[in-house]
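During data preparation, we tokenized the protein backbone, and the record follows.
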Amino acid sequence: MTEAEVVLPNDEFFPDPYDMSTDSAQRLFNRICTLMRVDPSSIVLDLFPDVADELREVVPVWSSRGQAKGCAAGIYYLPDELAADKRAEIGLQQSLLKEPSKLIATIAHEVGHAILLGGKLIATDTSDHEPLTDLLTVFVGLGIFGANSSAHFRQFTEPGRQGWSMSRLGYLGQEMFGYALAKFAIERGEPRPEWARFLSTNVRVYFKRSSDWLMRRAS
């Protein structure tokens, strides 16, 4: 945690051109794996259709809240010991390609599974392994993306259709992400880090409140 480099949404960390293609998603995946100290060649990346996205194409007025039951933005599959290919697999919704920040957050979360489950640091039946995986992304330096994607409102008007959506990505809310990032910063001796300016407005408020509270407790 103290050695982790905080990954920012800029060209320094993501210099590759991104055009929403499968190839650019693979390059992004490889870069995130490297930042998280995971060998990208040890995981197969796959994309699967987003049912909600398909519905928007045929429904003139669309609204949604959260994600469809049983439909995750990303899926991690442990290696099949009986298969010839012993690599793990990560599946991502195709619609994530349209939103790079959410794509990065989802990739980081799923690679977190490779660290925790693939590395046998936790069991597959650990009850809180999903929020724990979100926390892992904070403490390896990619927490900004998960925090900023934890709540997202979108309103759109397009030819022949309009609608809105309120979605939550991940398993921790904005308040918990704010606290986790504050704890991360203070443990690293950075109570007022420069990278906090990259946080969304709500998360930044929770981050500051948590930082102030943690510093008062320490004094």
